[in-house]
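Cross-posting from the modeling subforum.

Setting up a comparison between two proteins and wanted a second pair of eyes on the formatting. Protein 1 (sequence, then structure tokens):
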Amino acid sequence: TIIYLFFKQLHGEMCKCLSAIYCKILSLFPSLEAARPRSKSGIQALCSLHVALEKAKNVLQHCSECSKLYLV
């Protein structure tokens, strides 16, 4: 049970960190998108960031569902 509690706490801390990073980048994203980089590399970076934000959102959603399972 000690290992279970350790992983539960670790999981919670990782989700909190990811959530903080996600929220910070998400708040900056509209400004980045409004700047509309004209270079190919700028557009690719913006698209990569968008994909990464979607993946982070999915991970956080999964974390939320797992937290509910921990409570059961």
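Protein 2 (same layout):
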Amino acid sequence: GIPVIGCTTAGEITSEGYRENTLTGVSFGGADYRASIRLIEGLDRFRMEAGSVVVQDLFADLGLAPLSARAIPHQVFAMLLIDGMSRQEEVVVSSISRFLDPVPLFGGSAGDGLDFGTTWVFADGAFHTNAAVLALIETDCPFSVFKLDHFRPTDKKMVVTEADPVRRLVTEINAEPAAPAYAKMVGLDEHQLNPMTFAAYPVVVRVGGEYHVRSIQKVEEDGSLRFYCGIDEGLVLTVADGDDIARNLDSALTKLAAELGSLDLILGFDCILRRLEAEQK
């Protein structure tokens, strides 16, 4: 009688640090938490308006009117797990966020190590592809939804001059083949490009006054770059330098502890390139 949700990963964050091939879980229960869960199937057919129905159903399960006086960020948060190979994260998140606001949303894309073959989400007692799981959780406990990274933008900028956002491919940067242009910008040879170099030389995009990482997945045979998210033509990519990853994390968590008091749990979603950088350094 207890709903269980989950997803496949590219490694796990555990109480003992980074691990692989483990099952990592946490429970929300007792009188302090009330949860509602929806499996969203057929992501290849997902439309922007679909988020409205899903969000309304979740609120109704908890006896909340959407955007009512009770449905405010310090009482309710939402978590999304989504098939990482669906390439539908942007449209699903945009749709859900539109109807959830101001309830904070966090989560991640299901992983498959560095194989990028098939990824799965788990709900209703079974694994699903081409699907996502959205959980809405109401709690009396204090919490904070946060994000962090340890990158500083440099003055190295490049413009995406040809791209296919749907396929998440960038074929040209600065009117040159994408992979050689990126390699030249970071001072490497094209043949040196691999996940480790993408982790060491990330690119960021300025959105709403803040810089956000746009991770590169791999180099395709034709010299194009495949990203983990859709990249539009005309977008300005900035090469970033990394601060000390451990010191940055410690500072962020110390600040959170000061805001909330003692921390009982940190539920974290990590980028595979962040993990690679941590292991490398």
